[in-house]
Every structure is written in C-alpha cells, then in structure tokens.
Amino acid sequence: MKSNHPKPDSLLLGLGLDNKDGHKRLTKGDNFVMVGGSEETHERMTETAIKFNEKLAKKGKNLHDLSPEEFRDLMQEASDR
Questions:
Q1: Which domain holds residue 46?
Q2: C-alpha distances in angstroms, 10 versus 13, 24, 41, 43, 65?
Q3: Taking the chain, what is the end-to-end CA distance rounded to the nearest angstrom?
Q4: What is the number of structural domains in the chain?
Q5: Is the Cβ–Cβ distance between 29 and 50 less than 8 Å?
Q6: What SS3 state is found at 42?
Q7: DSSP string, 46-79
Q8: pLDDT tens for residues 39-71?
Q9: Which residues are CB-neighbours of 61 under 8 A, at least 6 positions away?
Q10: Please, what sign has the CA dihedral across residues 50, 29, 56, 44?
Q11: Which of 5, 26, 33, 42 has its CA 20 to 30 A from that of 49?
C-alpha cells in the first residue's frame, strides 16, 4: 500500500558539549543545525556539515534518500582532515 504522506524531512544535528566560555553558538544551513560547543568544536561540526552537503549534492541525492551505509560513508569522507 502506497502512502499519501510525503517523506519526512531529514536534518543533521550537531551538539557540542565542551563549551566553557559562555558563548551561545547556533549555526543553521541546508540540512543541518549545529548547537553549542567551544569555538573550535562548533567550527569543526559546521565545516563537516558543509562538506557533507557538498558530497551529497555531487551524488544528486537528498539527505532522506541515503541508506545508512551511504550516510556513514559520506560522513566519514566529510569528517576526514
């Protein structure tokens, strides 16, 4: 039976817990929201999400189209330095 409901939106959520300077950090982009973290952690999470989106676009897919394996592989590639 085919559902009439659209596929749910997908979102990458990054949560940094190492903030000790009192700054509130929040960055939103296509497919992602990054919250908290130290300046370094927040920047790294954001850079990884941007690289992930670039790799996703090259594949011509949406986040919700990825299999768990594809997601893992793209995230691994995006987080490599």
A1: 23-79
A2: 10, 24, 23, 21, 9
A3: 45
A4: 1
A5: yes
A6: helix
A7: HHHHHHHHHHHHHHT--GGG--HHHHHHHHHHHH
A8: 999 999 999 999 999 999 999 999 999 999 999
A9: 70
A10: positive
A11: 5
